[in-house]
Design goal:
homodimer, alpha+beta, 6-stranded mixed beta sheet, 28 strands, 35% helix
Chain lengths: 606, 606
């Protein structure tokens, strides 16, 4: 441990001490600091990184528990090594989630609490379901204190909540004006015989009001809440984030602007005369928001996707999507060409590849930022599904094995997500066999046709079966929805095979975009994943019903250096050849002569 | 209409008149006569055919509604033609279920009832759920009278309820003695913190007590009820049906015998001191039974398959299953050989083929009866999924098109179900294309490997996709469970793709038997179905999990005269060739020289 680490540990210990003094004042016996914001966002802003501030652990997932006697951090397998290192010497114990013999957070708490013990947390960053589960699991009668943000008092130099400029999205980008969207929503309100809707998920609000912002990393959204009745609509946002143009736009669309912090008071007071029926998604709102809403409303629980049909893209969104996917494919293909053909990559690292890719994307018109943190994972790093390099782990590339590159871009009008696994040197036969199976699975799913009514659970096996037949599997879903210049992970559609009580199983609808990304991960050795985005489309309708299929949105070559044609059926070979012909034809106009020549070989018929 | 028809119509009208007099006496405004017995059996005995007696309609499904002004019969598409003919002149109106503009029975009733109207039916032949649904759907406040069997009073020469001899099944056939099965069941009772179990589904009772009988067509079961507590067990059966040997067997196993009709009184009185917790499957018991049980118990609703694990076969059952499947395959293959090679089939009809097949089955040791009514459907008849020939529809075979033959046998220790579509003459290219797609689907499903946790909904697409890619579909599930010398349709496992709120979705377990029977049905032209039975087995276990697959139980050639090898992938061709090699090797020892020669060609490599 060097001097800097010692200093850091000292700082963490004193922050915990300060927290414990506040806990004692407030008579809180156990204080929880989860990782979240007021909107259940996948990525959170610096203002919300209280768990990181108090524990020193910088991973994107984890919960800190502090009592008078102990401090513990619960995180998952992605972060065990990082957390171990970062927590060393801080007095915080690491609890490896899902490991045998390691109690979960709730289980641990259940063993510690006594009758009358008080558990505290900031109710704005946990869900109503979290509190319910916690109370249910405790063997003693405990108190909950959810209206405190103790971290805020310890964190003297806490960054302000981001309040970047909010701007309207033109109809040429959204494809549907706000009045029409509000009309659809109000029809839902009517159908549910309800009075109002409360939204706190940022992408839903941005979609509905045709707004965008810049408050959350990787996602063009603004920190806001929305409340809509049959006659009126409100937007709760930091007023400084709303410039004159946006203000005019809101006025034109009869959306009343209120301060971000006013939402709680508003909810309690909005219908003082009689309780109105409020539609909200209990899985998506925070505990504090739920309680404020419940104080003034009769709550009807409804998943947001039933109210906000953003998963089904309109023609404008699809046209933008196709165009930007092509631009994105050009950037990724240029990067792959460079990697495959550059005489010397010995100076190149995982991080520099990510930067170089970002450079190619920046050359594309409309590009704004990555849609998530690029995964550039060389060799055995790729076996860690969520690996992202940092300055310490950053591997130098060599002409051997493979580089897994999973990345995406935000473009003004579209969001992309693509994975290619690039062969840099010799592979074993087994690696090629696995690569071929992954490619076949990806292609088989993309090329299927199915009757309307199928869900992702019906189709998942098409991608997975080639691996299952080899006795292999990947421990993640096969695909997720993608937003339109919004979140890169967007529900409700998904390709997965397991039954789930918490995840909805929804019918695939034409206009939905969904990724197709089978893979294989061999610990300590290598990882392979190939990902295209698919658009669900109508194929034909006849006496048997409506047949749907997919249009492939992603056009980047699949590395033939790892493909074993003899392992593929004629059908699969044809699928790959057809795909590569399209890739070549679409990308050529945007490539240099050398790149074109290279691509010609890379997309040759097998 | 001939003289006999006129006489029959007169009889039906006078039966309805008699029913209406009774209805008036009992102040019943609408009387319902469904098709069912006290056990929700798939096939019902003659004693229970009240609907047929009162309406003259002989189909296996339908409900009769009688009021002072009208009489109507609701049945499904399988029976429209037959019902139209049989109801002509009876004054009974035919309601074609699922047809546009035709109200369902409940919908129709909802439009007819008035405040205070009384709807009557025999509560022993409808489910508790039926009454609930009925009450829910009525727009007026109605009365229900469910303790009447008016048909019984009209039906003067009603056959007695069957009470054939009940006999115990040796352990060499059941594989598990009754004490062990009761032990398992009592463990379930404990786990559910309940006191007792009530069973009325006959195959569950037969499995649990290792008994068989002969009261229901096609199924070796006896009309019984069972009630089991942690200490005691009861069988309710017609005492005349229990011979001395069976009586001794029951005594040895500490099963108390009570009269069949005593069950209702028993349920109300068994725990007079305090209400005990009773496990029962509300979807499986009759309304009358449910009400009797509820009078003396606190009811815990649990599907029977959670208590009676008969779907997972034991080693003894599987060995018998394999042996009898081979015997059955010999019978079916001999029939196919005869049909394909006999110089003159112009005297042969759909019914005579069924008889001839029965003849071959009777030559097999252990055969007792068909496991369901044989479907022998020639040409366009095969487009009707549930077609069974009668003396009027019975088609004479010709050397053209195809014969669909779906049949099965009960053997002392196993139940079989197999479909082959046999080419009798020239086919169109389209027919061959469809036949090949059906065969490929059947083979792909049979040859898959999958992780433990998959249900039939995950796998169904493997059989269906080859047809979906041609823009075709079949409007039935791909497969159902099969009993061990019990019902040919047995839950809970199934291959199907649609989500269902009423059908359970259960994980496939090693030891489950399930049919694999894709098809295609072109109205007015032809029908194709190919069905093998599959046994779910362990394939391998490794770091990724337990991989399961299927062992094929059915070994009968698939007609190569309809197969287009050029339409099949190499993988599919290999599956078919491997299957045919097995068929040839397994069946040869049981065939004549000529049959062997024929089979050699029929199972040639493609």
């Amino acid at each position: 441990m060097d001097q800097t680490d010692k200093m850091q540990n000292h700082i963490i210990r004193s922050r915990l001490d300060a927290l414990r003094i506040l806990m004692k004042q407030k008579q809180i016996d156990f204080y929880l600091v989860p990782t979240g914001d007021d909107h259940q966002s996948e990525y959170i802003g610096d203002h919300y990184k209280a768990r990181e501030y108090l524990s020193g652990f910088t991973g994107s997932a984890g919960t800190l528990l502090v009592s008078a006697e102990m401090a513990g951090l619960w995180t998952d397998g992605r972060y065990f090594i990082q957390a171990e290192k970062e927590l060393e010497g801080t007095s915080i114990e690491l609890f490896r989630m899902q490991e045998d013999g390691v109690p979960g957070l709730t289980e641990y708490l259940a063993g510690q609490v006594w009758d009358g013990a008080t558990i505290g947390f900031d109710g704005r960053v946990v869900s109503a379901a979290f509190q319910k589960g916690l109370l249910h699991a405790m063997p003693k009668i405990i108190q909950i204190c959810s209206d405190v943000d103790l971290a805020d008092q310890v964190w003297t130099d806490r960054p302000d909540r981001s309040a970047d400029q909010i701007y309207p999205l033109e109809k040429s980008l959204s494809g549907m004006d706000t009045a029409a969207k509000l009309g659809m929503l109000r029809k839902c309100i009517d159908e549910m015989t309800a009075d109002a809707v409360l939204l706190s998920t940022l992408d839903d609000i941005m979609w509905l009001y045709n707004l965008r912002g810049n408050d959350v990393l990787y996602t063009p959204v603004a920190l806001t809440f929305a409340y809509i009745t049959k006659e009126s609509a409100w937007l709760f946002a930091e007023k400084s984030a709303v410039p004159e143009e946006t203000n005019r736009y809101l006025t034109t669309n009869k959306i009343t602007l209120e301060s971000y912090d006013q939402i709680y008071e508003f909810l309690m007071k909005v219908h003082q005369e009689r309780k109105k029926k409020l539609l909200l998604d209990t899985a998506a709102v925070s505990l504090t928001l739920y309680e404020a809403a419940a104080a003034g409303h009769e709550i009807i629980d409804l998943p947001n996707y039933r109210l906000i049909p953003k998963a089904v893209k309109n023609q404008t969104e699809l046209e933008l999507c196709r165009n930007y996917h092509l631009a994105d494919a050009v950037a990724v293909t240029k990067l792959i060409c460079w990697l495959k053909t550059h005489p010397d990559i010995s100076e190149e690292t995982e991080l520099s590849v990510a930067d170089r890719l970002e450079g190619y994307r920046k050359q594309q018109k409309g590009y704004t930022e990555p849609s998530f943190e690029t995964i550039a994972a060389f060799g055995e790093h790729a076996a860690m599904i969520h690996f992202t390099a940092d300055t310490e782990t950053n591997a130098v590339l060599r002409r051997e094995g493979m580089l897994l590159l999973d990345s995406g871009g935000q473009y003004v009008g579209a969001t992309t997500d693509i994975t290619r696994t690039i062969v840099l040197g010799n592979l074993t036969d087994e690696q090629k066999q696995q690569y071929t199976a992954v490619a076949c699975g990806m292609l088989k799913l993309a090329n299927t046709e199915f009757l309307y009514g199928c869900t992702g659970r019906n189709l998942d096996i098409l991608a997975r079966e080639p691996l299952w037949k080899l006795g292999l599997d990947y421990r993640h879903g096969t695909g997720h929805g993608v937003g339109s210049f919004l979140s890169v992970h967007e529900g409700p559609q998904a390709f997965r095979w397991k039954m789930s009580e918490t995840q909805p199983e929804v019918v695939l609808e034409p206009g939905m975009i969904i990724t197709d990304e089978p893979g294989i991960y061999i610990e300590g050795s290598h990882g392979i994943r190939i990902e295209n985005e698919l658009l669900c489309i109508e194929k034909r309708a006849n006496e048997w019903g409506r047949f749907l299929g997919f249009e492939v949105l992603t056009h980047v070559p699949i590395d033939l250096d790892a493909i074993l044609p003899e392992q593929m059926s004629d059908e699969c070979k044809k699928m790959l050849n057809v795909y590569h012909t399209e890739v070549y034809e679409l990308l050529c106009p945007y490539l240099t002569d050398n790149e074109q020549k290279w691509l010609f070989t890379q997309t040759r018929e097998i």
